[in-house]
Design brief:
Elements (H helix, E strand, L loop, with lengths): L27 E10 L6 E11 L4 E5 L6 H8 L7 E6 L2 E2 L5 H11 E4 L11 H11 L4 H14 L15 H13 L5 E5 L7 H16 L3 E5 L3 H4 L4 E6 L2 E3 L12 E2 L13
Parallel strand pairs: 3-8, 3-9, 6-7, 7-8
Antiparallel strand pairs: 1-2, 1-4, 4-5, 9-10, 9-11
Bound molecules: adenosine-5'-triphosphate.
């Protein structure tokens, strides 16, 4: 495990509470991952030797300016893209060992995405939206619906299962999107500005749901520009020009990575 993943004040591996330390496999591991986009003069080193582990029960916030590599990081973690160099392990599987079909299967099995704009299908009810990825995965409709109902209950929306997205508030739609991300066995949650389209009160409520899912055993990677939302994470990593840096912009050394207590979000007054 990379030393970068160890919390400065913690005697146990990254993200694991002492009680969970022994049982906590890493759901996402990036080991010296580099991603170069383009070729020749147009070459961009979007990520440069990034190492990061995220385990069950751990929510990691990713912050950084536009173009610093946040989306590239999420795409690699979500098996939508492959590294130029280094190793990406999702759910214990080295992504480089898989072809496109294998990566898609790994993604469906392990990864749930939560996007800023929800990406719900308007013609489908909440429960149909949530069960759709499982049905596409070959799970029988009855089982997929049962899983979807459980996922909706987990985000407090079981009473709105038959409602269409257009008849829901923004926060309710985003909770459906979270339910869709966690339905079935998937436990790696990748969220890209999931509260961006929401007012602050609703955004906080969505963060609380994300946090609860992580506390229930998922691993989460949250891209955000908002320190109040980063304060919900166990730790925050900062990207700059494709590199992990500390909050002052220096290249991160292990002791520089911030845990939740010292992250800037704590100064924002955000509460859990
Ligand atoms: N497909 C691509 N081809 C060429 N360059 C790319 C490609 N995708 C990303 N880049 C470049 O890689 C760098 C990192 O981009 P990325 O989208 O990961 O940043 P980001 O931090 O997510 O930015 P934003 O906050 O604006 O979404 C940028 O310089 C970007 O222009």
């Amino acid at each position: 495990m990379s030393a970068l993943t160890t919390r400065p004040s913690s005697p146990v591996p990254s993200g694991a509470s002492p009680s969970r330390a022994d049982a906590a496999p890493v759901l996402l591991r990036l080991d010296r991952v580099t991603r170069v986009h383009g070729t020749g003069a147009g070459e961009v080193r979007a990520l440069d030797a990034i190492s990061l582990d995220v385990g069950p029960g751990e929510l990691v916030a990713v912050m950084g300016p536009s173009g610093s590599g946040k989306s590239t990081l999420l795409n690699l973690a979500g098996c939508l893209d492959t590294a130029t160099d280094g190793t990406v392990v999702v759910g214990g599987v080295d992504v480089a060992s898989l072809d496109a079909r294998g990566r898609a299967a790994l993604r469906r099995r392990h990864v749930g995405f939560v996007f800023q704009d929800f990406n719900l299908v308007p013609a489908l009810t909440a429960v149909e939206n949530v069960s759709l990825p499982r049905e596409l995965d070959g799970v029988p409709v009855r089982s997929a619906r049962a899983e979807a109902t459980a996922a909706l209950a987990a985000v407090g929306l079981d009473d709105l299962a038959d409602r269409f997205p257009d008849d829901m508030s923004g926060g309710q739609r985003q909770r459906v999107a979270i339910a869709r991300a966690i339905v079935g066995p998937r436990r790696l949650l990748l969220a890209d500005e999931p509260t961006g389209a929401l007012d602050s009160v609703t955004g906080e409520a969505v963060m609380r749901v994300l946090r609860e899912r992580v506390d229930a055993g998922a691993a989460g990677l949250l891209v955000t520009h908002d320190a109040r939302h980063a304060a919900w994470a166990d730790r925050t990593v900062f990207l700059k020009d494709g590199r992990l840096v500390d909050s002052t912009g220096r290249r991160a050394e292990p002791a520089d990575l911030l845990d939740r207590d010292s992250a800037s979000g704590d100064e924002s007054g955000a509460t859990r």
